[in-house]
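Deviation from plan, reported transparently: alpha-D-glucopyranose complex.
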Amino acid sequence: MTLDQKIGQMTQPERMHVSPSEVKRYHIGSVLSGGGSCPGDNRPVDWVAMNDAYWSASMEEDDDHLAIPVLYGVDAIHGNANVLGATIFPHNIGLGAAGDPELIERIGRITAREVRAAGVDWTFAPTLAVAQDPRWGRTYESYSEDPGVVGEYAGRIVRGLQGGGVVGAGGVGDFVGLGPEGILACAKHWVGDGGTRDGVDQGDTVVDEEELRRVHIAPYVPALEAGAMTVMVSLSSWNGEKCHAHRYLIQDVLKGEMGFGGFVVSDWNGLDPLAEDYGDAVAMAVNAGIDMVMVPEAWKAFIAALRERVERGDVPVERIDDAVERILRVKFVSGLFERGRPWGRRGANGSSFGSREHREVAREAVRKSLVLLKNEGGVLPLDKGARILVTGRGAHDRGRLCGGFTVEWQGVLGNDRIEGGTSVWEGIEAVAPGAVLGGVGGSWDVEGVGEEEGVGGTQGEGEEGDFDVAVVVIGERPYAEGLGDIREESPVRPGTNHLPAGAGVLKPYGDTLELAALHPEDLATIRGLSGRGIPVVAVLVSGRPLVVDEELAASAGFVVAWLPGSEGGGVADVLFGDFDFVGRLGMGWVGGEVLFPWGYGLRLLGSEV
Ligand code: GLC
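Because the crystal trials were delayed, the predicted structure below was used instead.
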């Protein structure tokens, strides 16, 4: 291979900035979709067509180009949720509350099927973050604050995604290839992403090495043992040193001590903050052990800079050869050379995409993820014959239930773009003939509690006092990454976090975890109804524990639903007692006067789970 061909394999542009002909001309090894970056009408067939074009170009061998299949990567972190009509699972924080590793493996297998249906072979999942501070905007991507729970899930989700056909001998890379429906997993973000000071996204994790190993590195061991063949580096720092330039963590610990035999990919523009001079940054990252560089737009500059640094001797050719050997090993071992073009592959445009069978598993996951914090006077389970008012901004809004990394990077609101799923209202309406969807900001909400972003419901009949009980769905709107942080506003480097270069300032979600301050309309709605003598069951849709002392006090029942995904009907299954609560908090409920410890959760009859 020529130096250009080798450097090309190490380069990962974003689909909007590279054409199939450029993939061939520059020998590109991988292309990605950033969150929400979707081809055509964003149906599986459009994705297969796109991948077929890239793959075919990469395989057109000639005097200048070797036929090496390009590898396409997406963030299928809770189902293939970019794509319209996909089965969308609860985000990891809810799955952690479910406490069911076997379920996680089934979710991995289904996710792999729906990713393969789009002609894609690689997902940037699982996130193995061990979130320590709920102010972090990516808390919902973490299974738990406990490294033991994350580690218990890590091996299962990797086996689920990769099809169980891969056996890693302690991470030494003794891979036996993917299962017939498997896709490549990517353990991320290496390392300590969930431990940054004050939960600031891409911030600094200030811990000693013992804690870094015990809390943040530990879950990677089962992931590598299960055969994870790619690892993504964290945009955060450890004790002030950027992970993307951390030779000890990448080269010595991950590849040396832990024997990781696959390849390490950088995160989005992760080289940019490393040094003022881009060439210096490139040399630092590649010499630290990064094998493939996710450089969405300025990938030609990356290629030029790396070539120059190799020619200057700043980056040894041996390092380049090691990186390319790792990339090719993964492509060979994963069967990418044998899979053939995307159009003809097993599972492409697969009919199981978004199927009822898949959605049933997602609905099971919703049921198992729900955590019951309060059930005063036995308000739960609900009676299917009761007069039930269902209201609140999340009552009939499937987009809100899905959270970030869903169709768009920051997620979507409303129901239009979450096809095939069920909202909380739709789950209740299906079994309770006396249920009524209260308008958002309608007559049954407290006056003046209009909501610009909610989904208006049908006005109920009858008088306001007719209801036996009200289900009020409250909580956060969708967000992703730093835009979900709880902190003071602060400028960040333009161009990171998918933000357009001109963005400049990364606006966080808010500056407090108090729901009553973030969304006062929720408490107003609850109080407005309970004040009329209607007992309220509050259902909290959020990516993390929030301070909800006042909402709890004003409610008879309180259910934490996390970010349940497309199958919101699973909430109704438990509210009516068809299934009991089994969920337990994967993070301690902190911040207010009312605290619930890690592992807390009630059953319908009042005992702790
Ligand atoms: C993002 C995230 C990472 C994701 C990548 C590609 O910035 O940090 O988790 O896989 O970019 O979208």
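Residues 329 and 567 are 38 Å apart (CA to CA). We consider this an acceptable substitute for the interim report.
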